[in-house]
Fold this sequence. Notes:
Elements (H helix, E strand, L loop, with lengths): L1 E6 L8 E6 L7 E10 L2 H7 L16 E8 L11 E4 L2 E3 L5 H4 L13 E2 L19 E5 L4 E2 L7 H4 L5 H11 L7 E5 L3 H12 L3 E6 L5 H7 L3 E4 L3 H5 L5 E6 L8 H4 L2 E9 L12 H5 L4 E4 L5 H13 L6 E4 L4 H9 L6 E5 L5
Parallel strand pairs: 10-11, 10-13, 11-12, 13-14, 14-15, 16-17
Antiparallel strand pairs: 1-2, 3-4, 3-8, 3-17, 4-5, 5-9, 6-7
This protein binds NADP nicotinamide-adenine-dinucleotide phosphate and zinc ion (2 copies).
Amino acid sequence: MQTKAYGAQKAKAPLAPIAIERREPGPKDVALDILFCGVCHSDLHTARGEWPGILYPCVPGHEIIGRVTKTGKDVKSFKEGDIVGVGCMVESCRTCEPCQHDLEQYCEGPNGFTGTYNGAAKGGLPNTFGGYSKHIVVDEHFVLRIRHKEHQFAAAAPLLCAGITTWSPLKHWKIGPGQKVGIIGIGGLGHMGVKLAHALGAHVVAFTTSPSKKSAALELGADEVVVSKNRDEMNAHAGSFNFILDTVAASHDLDAFTRLLKRDGALVLVGVPEDPHPSPSVGTLIFGRKSIGGSLIGGIAETQEMLDFCAERDITCDIEMIAMADIDNAYDRQLKSDVKYRFVIDMATLT
Ligand code: NAP
Ligand code: ZN
Ligand code: ZN
């Protein structure tokens, strides 16, 4: 079936209305009307062709909240009318070792996981198209239950990527009380990193390049805020962190942060800049047995765990709602760090 969407026809083109095809729901599929979709920096990297291998036309969007309109005959967990979420993945092989261990994001099947957009689509359709659209059809395994209250639905949308991408490394590195945790970059991912690390009981330090975000970062739950361009403020934290999560979407100096780690501390990267970071100093790592790691979104079971954790504690994202037609302006503002902290598209505006 055809559905209205918004997409880019090529790397440098602005996004514009486009009609796309969705498959008819199969026995295990859930069809939903999309209510809200968050605007991740990955959408911008993709739509504007900043990463290699982008397929056009490209319809971004992987922070989706919707209402179920139809379910296939074998669908057990959802029914018409349910409020559900769809994140960054819509398929994986389900049989490889990572898939068997609820780590679909690291699927080792022939094609890895299928991204909600820019992936290989089923049923003879071209590449997958994401949530900047009215309607989507997804296998129930990749559909999440939303337990937030109705007035929180829009603000829950970015949990589907920004939430899980920060939650997964915090859990993997066993962050909790007694630990000092840094979050670099207070954007969509970073502001959720601050909220979640705080909720897990850590002492949280927010690193920002935007002095204007200082008081706002404290309100998010940071215990301290450091303007990372200020050398004295950085030096005051030398050798003191157990864990630092780097959400920055641009290439930057990592040594400034590995220096702040304690012995055995880890700097974990989740930001994926267009250009590589300068090679880090080996000495800073060796003298202190420090590590630099990376982390990719999170598995489906873990995403449900994070959603339920947030629903129980009334944790949502801080959002600014936009109309679909304002998306390119929103991307330009995101590049200037001019959003507190996530744009969410009200899909009722896609008419
Ligand atoms: P975002 O909302 O644009 O936030 C990025 C933040 O980084 C900005 O708000 C800014 O924070 C800081 N920043 C930007 N440019 C900077 C620079 N030149 N130097 C230092 N800091 C800078 O982006 P996002 O949606 O959170 O995404 C962040 C990155 O994570 C993107 O690269 C995205 O593709 C990637 N991502 C990865 C995964 C994964 O699974 N690993 C998942 C989702 C997204 P301040 O103003 O506070 O400095
Ligand atoms: Zn994302
Ligand atoms: Zn797999």
